[in-house]
Structure formats: C-alpha cells, structure tokens
Amino acid sequence: MSELAPPRGGLLADTAALAARSTRISTRNPDAVLVSLLLPVLLMIVFVHLFGGAINTGTEYVTYVAPAVLVLCAGYGASMTAQSVTSDMAQGVVDRFRSMDVGAVPFLGGHVAASAARNTVAVLVVVVAAALMGFRAAGSPLGWLGAAGLLLAWIVALSWLAACVGLVARSAEGAGGYGFFLLFLPYPSSGFVPIETMPGWLRGFAEHQPVTPLIESVRALLLGEPAGGAAWRTLAWCCGILVCSVALSGVLFRRRSR
After folding, report:
1. Phi-psi region of 205 (alpha: psi -120 to 50; beta: other; left: phi over 0)
2. What is the pTM of this model?
C-alpha cells in the first residue's frame, strides 16, 4: 500500500494509517532518531557530572534533575513534529490527502501519535541512563504510572502545538527555529535549580509557567511523595494547550491547503 494513500475507514482508521506512515518515515531518518535518543542522555551527563557538584538542592542532584531531563526530552521530541508537518506541506503531500477527503485531525493526529511513540522510547532511554547514574525512585507502581501519564499528556499537547507551528512555518529550518521556544521552557523552571535561587523578575515566570508543575508532579510521583495540586495544574495546562492547538490547527490547515 502506498504511504500516500491511507485507507478510507473513518477518522480513527485514517489517523492510525497516517501515524504508521509518520513512524515509517522516522525510521528512515536514523540520524534524527539517534540524536533524539542521545541528546537527553548527554544532557543528563552534563548536568549530573559537570554541574551537579556545584548545585545544592538538598538532595542528590541526579534525583533532583532526572524529572527535568525527562521533560526536556519530551519537549525535544515533540518539537520535531513541527519539522515533519512543514516537510509534508512543502512537498505537496497534503494536496494528495485533501483529494481523498483527509482532514486536519487525521493528518496532524498521525504526526502526533508518531511523536508520542518516538518520545516514549526516548523517555525510557533517559530513565535507564538516570538509573545508571544513581537515580533511585521510591515511588509506587501507581506513582510511576501517574508520572508516565502526565508525561504522555504533555507530549501529546506539545506535539499538537508543534504541529500548529509546522503549519505556519515555510521551511523545516524555520520550524526547527520556532521549536527552540518549546525547548527553552524547562530551563526557567524548578527543573534544574530551586526557584528560590532565581532573581525576582524571573521567579514569577518560573512559578506560573506550565513546565514547573509538570516537573514538580513527576518528581513527587517518582519519589513517592504527594504531588498535591501540581498534578491537577499540569493536566489543566495540557488540556488547555491541546484544545487551543486542535482548534487553531483546523483553521491553519484549511488556509494552507486551499
């Protein structure tokens, strides 16, 4: 079956077919896959072994920073969705899909599903690397499941937002540039240093941006501590980003595919 001709079996069937197509395309670009797997591990090494000795968080730094690297890894993988969407738009693939009455949701949903699959593998690699560096999680299986669910919700929401960026960008390079802003969010948060150590003007942003409650809730769940309201704030952010991104993507898709 041609990868440009998904079977017409309804919304779910089209989305599944296009997700399989995006996954196959990813496997044909091993360099990008390798970078997405190795970069988070290298970042873990840099923060733990180069900076960790100079940063006091009241606990082993690998324990403190591992959740932040997991979120950073998810953000990097999600940002690649923008480049994939832009590439499809530039190559005229969408025109073929539109002739088969494939709308925005199956097309972008396929990219998002493939992104979630890629990111799941990358997150598992980071977990293994963190364990080898001394990360010891005391959380229950239910806590691990909750942390995984929050990370997956963030990946889906961020991937759909990145898909909107891909519809706006005119080149894959431009889409990658826009994706930088998605990768920047974990740094001004509680992921790498306590917020209390930041200057006042930056502290306000760090406390009220979406990545901070995500990292704090993932950290708490993995360490067997109560997540409190951080988990609910994370879900609220994810739902808000996803709803806005889906609505916006429909408008952008119709404009770009006329």
Report:
1. alpha
2. 0.85
Question: Which pLDDT band, with edges at 50, 70 and 90, does 37 fall under?
Answer: confident
Report which of 211, 217, 154, 157 is spatially closest to residue 185, judged by C-alpha positions. 211
Q: How far apart are CA 150 and CA 143, in angstroms?
A: 11
**How is 38-69 classified by DSSP, letter by letter?**
HHHHHHHHIIIIIIGGG---SS-HHHHHHHHH
| pLDDT tens-digit readout, 207-248 | 999 999 999 999 999 998 888 899 999 999 999 999 999 999
Q: Which residues are CB-neighbours of 143 under 8 A, at least 6 positions away?
A: 221, 222, 224
pLDDT at 205: 92
CB 169 within 8 A of CB 145: no
194 φ, ψ to 5°? -60, 140
The token pair that represents 180 in the structure block = 């930088």
Distance CA 72, CA 44 (A): 10
**Amino acid present at 258:** R
Using alpha carbons, list the distances in angstroms from residue 155 to 53, 120, 145, 183, 241.
31, 9, 15, 12, 11
The CA dihedral of 129, 130, 132, 135, to the nearest 10 degrees, is -170
Structure tokens given for 156: 């889906």
Give exposure, 69-101, as e/b (b: 16+ Cβ within 10 Å): bbbbbbbbbbbbbbbbbbbbbeeeebeebbeee
Q: What is the pLDDT of residues 108-156, one digit of tens each?
A: 888 888 888 888 888 888 888 888 888 888 888 899 999 999 999 999 9
